[in-house]
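User: Predict the structure for this protein chain, please.
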Amino acid sequence: MNIPAYYRAFYRLYLRFSIVMMIAALLMGILFQESSKKAPISEMLPAGAHLESVFGLSLVHGHTFLIGALIPLAVTWMLFLGLQMGFAPLSEKTLRWTSRLYLPSSVVAVLLMLYKGYHFLLGVRGGNLDLAALNTSLFLGSHALRASVYGLTHTAMAVGLSIVLIAFWKSMNKSHE
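Assistant: Here is the predicted structure, written as structure tokens:
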């Protein structure tokens, strides 16, 4: 099978990224388990408050697997199958823009989840059980900064994936010469 060189580079990049993110996801699971032990359920921290204080951190493990490993593997597999089925290859520019947008923004999304998770956990461990106040104090209390960072990150991920998905959809109607 004739796979274009830029496809091979894309596959290599995405497979390596997926491996690194799988390792990171496993570490995130361990990190969550060990960190949540530092705020045990007690009279000061009842079960419901405990759950709310560690919930954000608990989501990091699964999200890292999903956005860092499963989605890149699915895109790689989709492109490979497209070539196997005789669809026209996507352009190098399409794959480059997908990578430039999706990969960095997915890393930033995981880091934002870690920040939020530890912000709550450390705040509760420090004695602040007012979760609304902790939520308000994220990003130094700047709602605009918070909305901008989350919005840009999610938009970049969505646009990066949309570029490759729309291009792939169009390639299904064209056959490979």
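DSSP finds five helices and no strands in the chain.
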